[in-house]
């Protein structure tokens, strides 16, 4: 009988959303840099050129993390910062930045969790077809090898992709995100090539990093029909196939879910599915709310609709349904049978600095309490959940919403780059500290394993 490792409490960010320094020290454009240059694509025409200036302020940000008492920090590598053309010559200045960040985290007692890809594909590869081009699996494997060999002596936790269900559907199917493509064939090509790239990356990490612990980070939310109509019911099933199953299903079971099989099969070659289905060590979950789905005339025949009137909503209108989080965790445990780490959960709120200079974000605290309680209920029901990372450490660039949505537990004044921990940051720090009481130093969630 062995004791399960201590529950991990952390926070998450991504490179494009916080780093800034978009044109410094050899970094080249990503597809998002180019996408944002077209007016009207993002709230207030915001860009991520500066973002939170984490590239220059990382040491102060690590101090914030240390003061919060975090066990771990999940961040991503900016592919165009370390390989400006996506392949070929590496950029030493970019690689050195992540050396500094990783070393600072370790010095602060914080474990680095490294995500290889959080949406910022090098524009040079985008011009070669991006995720529509099958060759990208080899390019991604080479990029993974560079990262693994550079940082694998200090980093052991690796995620291949963050939310592939979102960046493929929004970027190649619906045209809402970079690169702005809306084409059914492009969507299914991208799905398969991302999955193939995941499998190739797993092999590289196993080869190049001793003791690597590997996962992928999936968005997963229940998809409920907006009405009782057969059309909405069918639409909910279609969206669930793309949103929930297009990536974890083939990665776990080496085959596509039935709803997608015919559409993806033309792009599948012999041995592809075995490559995709490489075993991983954990399931990363991003979850904020369930989806309410209605029939649509778009290329997947489904879109997001309003929740029922009785369902509470966040400041940006997202449903607040902690029970859906609990059910999702139990479902993942029963389907995939590997340890689960919640890699993103949180909410945007109407954060305002009060006259005393504080941000009293009670709505966020209520949300986090409710969702962490739901997670603990899932654990009590048997779900093997081993960590929770809040989204996000700090207010950042929120893709199409620009800077209009604040998800951070640390407030960022984007004009001055001043950081102000919100009430939720203090609450989160106190909660983590309470989980490390002398009477229970490993936290409340450990259970014996055979």
Automatic annotation (TrEMBL):
The keyword Nucleotide-binding is annotated on this UniProt entry: no
Keyword Signal: no
Record-level Gene Ontology MF annotations: beta-galactosidase activity
The reaction(s) this protein catalyses: Hydrolysis of terminal, non-reducing beta-D-glucosyl residues with release of beta-D-glucose
Entry-linked PROSITE patterns: GLYCOSYL_HYDROL_F1_2
Keywords: Carbohydrate metabolism, Cellulose degradation, Glycosidase, Hydrolase, Polysaccharide degradation
Record EC number: 3.2.1.21
PANTHER family assigned to the protein according to its UniProt record, in alphabetical order: GLYCOSYL HYDROLASE (PTHR10353), LP05116P (PTHR10353:SF36)
Family: Belongs to the glycosyl hydrolase 1 family.
Name of this chain's protein: Beta-glucosidase
UniProt source species: Bradyrhizobium denitrificans
